[in-house]
Amino acid sequence: MGISANSEPKIISGDFGYVLEDVPHFTDYIPDLPTYPNPLQDNPSYSVVKQYFVNVDDTVAQKIVVQKDSPRGTHFRRAGPRQKVYFEPDDVHACIVTCGGLCPGLNTVIREIVCGLYYMYGVHRVSGIEGGYRGFYSKNTIPLTPKVVNDIHKRGGTILGTSRGGHDTSKIVDCIQDRGINQVYILGGDGTQKGASMIFEEIRRRGLKVAVAGIPKTIDNDIPVIDKSFGFDTAVEEAQRAINAAHVEAESFENCIGVVKLMGRYSGFIAMYATLASRDVDCCLIPESPFYLEGAGGLFEYIERRLKENGGHMVIVIAEGAGQELLAESMLTVNHQDASGNKLLQDSGLWLSQKIKDHFSKQNKMAINLKYIDPTYMIRAIPSNASDNVYCTLLAHSVIHGAMAGYTGFTVGSVNGRHAYIPFHRVIERQNKICITDRMWARLLSSTNQPSFLDPKDVAETKEETVAQLVNGENHLDVPATVRPKD
Ligand SMILES: Nc1ncnc2c1ncn2[C@@H]1O[C@H](COP(=O)(O)OP(=O)(O)OP(=O)(O)O)[C@@H](O)[C@H]1O
Ligand SMILES: O=P(O)(O)OC[C@H]1O[C@](O)(CO)[C@@H](O)[C@@H]1O
Ligand SMILES: [Mg+2]
């Protein structure tokens, strides 16, 4: 029997509207594979655990707010150790690669995959792929042992290096095959997970017993389905420092505006959470919420009022993707892309600062001071904080258990607090975005007192879209990739 070009989603239905969006398994395309007892059951550290292994039928619900008559809805396979594994420890040759931008916690995940494989499963061959996807075919691998990775979680960045672009599926799979690699752990954002999905499909097409597993990494928190991405909390915490500096500066000068630019290409999560956490922010601008500068209800009117009411100081947080349509109108924009094909955005923070200065200097309207802080790279180049470190450890353990159990073509993530295996297509088809008709954005508006910049008609339309999504069983407002701002 031939193997079809692309795997079909594995959807299993049960009673009362139960749906399992399952992940691929070796047994889907390789018959008669031997299994082995999980070595974890002989591990003294885990002997205290009451239930060693998760039940193979355990699944995690995507939607947990339900009513009496609601259908049971979408579920994902629960992560965790299985009684039977599909690899003998000595046969495993695992590799780890990091792709895309930096994110706090990358080194922790690398460390915990290496140590988890060593200490839980007795796997001693783990190779690091240097410099992202292109490292598969253009560089030598580095051997990773618990000794090599012992202290790396205390450092920011990734000891393996990373890159954008350079994804060549067949060259990558040739390299995996030539080196005898049979577990591939891929850390990266939406682009990386798309690349991982293509690697999985090619491996499956070639009929190889190679597990391909993704660990979602994105400082923008734009990967759907999962509760949040690792490093996000650390980034928000670090963003506080910049906001605090802007506040101190603004308070110390007359009519002073502190402007802080934070990351967030299409999703303003860092800006929103940093604003909510800080309480010193008077206005937060994100890509999901269009705004305007001039006229009644516009940003300039608000700034003027706020400076007058607030003792002559204010702080504005702007996400890098906010107001890009305004920038396009007022600047000559050239459609530049990075090596991965992501649109290179104009500097929204610099643009906004200049616009504010120009406005207030016009006809000597009001003398203002403006202090612009751009901490974008500082917040993602640091080591992860305590809670992210624990999260990274759990993600690393979950992904190892899945690969050892023969699952492949999946991304690991926490869904409503429980770790689950999510098929690649579910994390690459949409982007997670802030829903501006959601209670969280309303909380932000009420904490900053900024205008919503919204026409009541737009609010009604967005509400209708949100209701439609919630009826379809989505917890977050995930915006389909097809309606993203055009790349
Ligand atoms: N559609 C795609 N198909 C195959 N590979 C892709 C695709 N999009 C991106 N990649 C590859 O994935 C890697 C990372 O992609 P990208 O630079 O977009 O970062 P990312 O993973 O989205 O992370 P982040 O945006 O959080 O920094 C690159 O090597 C790129 O070539
Ligand atoms: O300058 P670089 O390394 O391409 O990264 C910038 C991009 O990376 C991200 O942080 C995503 O990782 C975006 O928010 C940002 O636009
Ligand atoms: Mg991306």
UniProtKB/TrEMBL annotation:
The keyword Cytoplasm applies. Its cofactor is Mg(2+). It is found in: Cytoplasm. InterPro entries: ATP_PFK (IPR022953), PFKA (IPR050929), Phosphofructokinase_dom (IPR000023), PKF_sf (IPR035966), PyroP-dep_PFK_TP0108 (IPR012004). GO terms for molecular function: 6-phosphofructokinase activity; ATP binding; metal ion binding. Pathway: Carbohydrate degradation; glycolysis; D-glyceraldehyde 3-phosphate and glycerone phosphate from D-glucose: step 3/4. ATP binds at residues 101, 164-165, 189-192. GO terms for cellular component: cytosol. It catalyses: beta-D-fructose 6-phosphate + ATP = beta-D-fructose 1,6-bisphosphate + ADP + H(+). Homotetramer. Catalyzes the phosphorylation of D-fructose 6-phosphate to fructose 1,6-bisphosphate by ATP, the first committing step of glycolysis. Belongs to the phosphofructokinase type A (PFKA) family. PPi-dependent PFK group II subfamily. Atypical ATP-dependent clade 'X' sub-subfamily. This is ATP-dependent 6-phosphofructokinase. It comes from Rubus argutus (Southern blackberry). The gene is PFK.
